[in-house]
Fold this protein.
Amino acid sequence: MSNETILEIEGLSKVYAGGTRALDNVDLSIRKGEIFALLGPNGAGKTTLIGAVCGIVRPSAGRITAFGADMARNWRSARSRIGLVPQELSTDMFETVWRAVSYSRGLFGLAPDKDRIAEILRSLSLYEKKDAQIRELSGGMKRRVLIAKALAHEPDLLFLDEPTAGVDVELRKGMWDQIAALRERGTTIILTTHYIEEAELMADRVGIIRAGRILMVDDKASIMQRMGTTEALIDLAIPLVALPDRLSDFPVTLSEDGMQLCYRGGDGQGKGSEEIAALTKALVACDIDYRGIDIHDSSLEDIFVDLVSREGGDA
């Protein structure tokens, strides 16, 4: 991943005729070669943002610059370098896989290239189904056809809007591998997903959007360090009346019945484990016996749910 900006969004807003504000002054920069995950609850504005960049939605205000060109003035040339895999299966179900993908290439004015189409289909494990009608395929394969169509004109920037929605766990993992392979070929990918483990596994950076506003953009490690926590529940053998002074330096609380200590601290990067180890030593030094410890490190999903809830949304 380089520091070169491939897409710059400035002050982007979209207000529909009825007054609904789908996007609210969005600023976002996408770097060349990265996988960027955009997370948000339903109705947050993810699909509207993608539609604005891809020319499907007309913004009410703001500016979009792609590959150094203002899309309002150079839409056709910039759009030819952008691929889109939509949420919905929007394709002719009676068309064969080969013809559907070849047609998408022709839509962007590229000459027919059988070798390139075959390469795309093989990379997505679709080549054996090239002569099958799309209606005959499984849900996972239909979604792969959408990816193949988006790749047919060899885009530099690829939008994947909920690419694994409705796909079972096994196929989902296969598609993660395919997305990673696309990035290895140099394609910049913007991914929206409800499966936050996808973002945690694949993305270089994560953005969180709610009610049309970007709440946060950062790389995963920084998010985990800044907002990640470790929680440990320590079951005591004998109830405590109060916390000993020796434990006052630790972020712990005592349950009402005195039978459990709750530690909540750390930084998502190992500090919590170190403090818990020190805490257990302090318990031994205070002659406090405990029966067990349940430790939980916050995931990106925990952080996402907490942030969206605190901002007034419902994840």
User: Anything to note?
Assistant: The radius of gyration is 24 Å. The first strand starts at residue 5 and ends at 15. Residues 76 and 108 are 9 Å apart (CA to CA).
